[in-house]
Automatic annotation (TrEMBL):
This is Protease HtpX homolog. The active site is at 140. It comes from the Archaea. Its EC number is 3.4.24.-. One of its GO terms (molecular function) is zinc ion binding. It holds the Pfam family Peptidase_M48. It comes from Natrialba chahannaoensis JCM 10990. Binds 1 zinc ion per subunit.
Length: 296
């Protein structure tokens, strides 16, 4: 398959990004109006920390997930698949890592195409056949090719600052009020309330954007492998196995949801605010792509 753009999907992503941008412009204006330089300094310091964290995202994410970088001697078949699929996707070969976990899943991380990593769990390799594993790896490579780590980091940057202002605003607001700057404690309270609203709205928009990018990565995987049905089969297998994981294991692995190809479910609320679209919708899209490939 050719790497053809889905203009409907791109349009939805553009609208979501536009709404986020407009929201953040209003947010920045309110902060400037009501709190002057007080909490802005905290925002700048935290922003600098976030940029450093993003720069080292591949190493930090692998470490936090318990992923171990592996050599071609240790996992020859896995390295062979990643190298072959990277060439097909016109990407530099990323770092290859394995997570020792029974939960079948995979994720990609890295700030750009030359500083990326793809990790799979031992449970994934034990669950899928060769073509299905290729489909999952291709999905993660599509995330790298689409620069999704960068896009989602930029999209969530001011949302995270809004959350930190809500969390720490009362503490710093007290000192700000005593100092007599800006519009006093009342202005800080307004800024905290606006930050809360901004965080809630951006939380919903960012998750919508994340779901759209999962669809885009599925399409990319189909283009890389030319085999959409293999990824569809893998998604169904992974989803079925994830549902069998005990609650205790699910709590331990829940922090990986933002990176996994299939998120771990945590009830109705968890599915409502999921970073991923439903497996059923993804499989439906892949079957449509399979039909397009057959008719081509």
């Amino acid at each position: 398959m050719n790497w053809q753009p889905d203009w409907g999907l791109r349009g939805r992503m553009f609208v979501t990004m536009f709404l986020l941008f407009a929201l953040y412009i209003v947010f920045a204006g309110v902060l400037t109006l009501y709190i002057g330089g007080g909490l802005w300094m905290i925002a700048i310091l935290f922003g600098g920390f976030s940029l450093v964290q993003y720069y080292f995202s591949d190493t930090l994410t692998l470490r936090s997930m318990g992923a171990k970088k592996v050599s071609a001697d240790e996992y020859p078949q896995l390295h062979s698949s990643v190298e072959r699929l990277s060439q097909q996707a016109d990407l530099p070969k990323p770092t290859v890592a394995v997570v020792d976990s029974n939960v079948p899943n995979a994720f990609a991380t890295g700030r750009n195409q030359r500083n990326a990593a793809v990790a799979v769990t031992s449970g994934l390799m034990n669950t899928l056949d060769r073509e299905e594993l290729d489909g999952v790896i291709a999905h993660e490579l599509a995330h790298v090719k689409n620069r999704d780590m960068m896009v989602m980091t930029i999209a969530s940057f001011l949302s995270t600052i809004a959350f930190m202002i809500v969390r720490w605003g009362a503490f710093f607001g007290g000192g700000h009020s005593r100092g007599g700057g800006g519009k006093g404690g009342g202005g800080v309270l307004v800024a905290i309330l606006v930050s809360l609203v901004v965080w809630i709205i951006s939380y919903v928009l960012i998750r919508a954007l994340s779901r759209y990018r999962e669809f885009a990565a599925d399409r990319g995987a189909a283009a890389i492998t030319g085999n959409p049905s293999a990824l569809a089969s893998a998604l169904l297998k992974i989803s079925g196995e994830v549902d069998k994981v005990p609650d205790k294991d699910m709590r331990e692995e829940a922090e990986m949801n933002a990176f996994f190809i299939i998120p771990l479910k945590s009830g109705i609320v968890g599915r409502l605010f999921s970073t991923h679209p439903s497996t059923e919708r993804r499989v439906e899209q892949l079957r449509e792509l399979e039909q397009e490939l057959t008719m081509a």
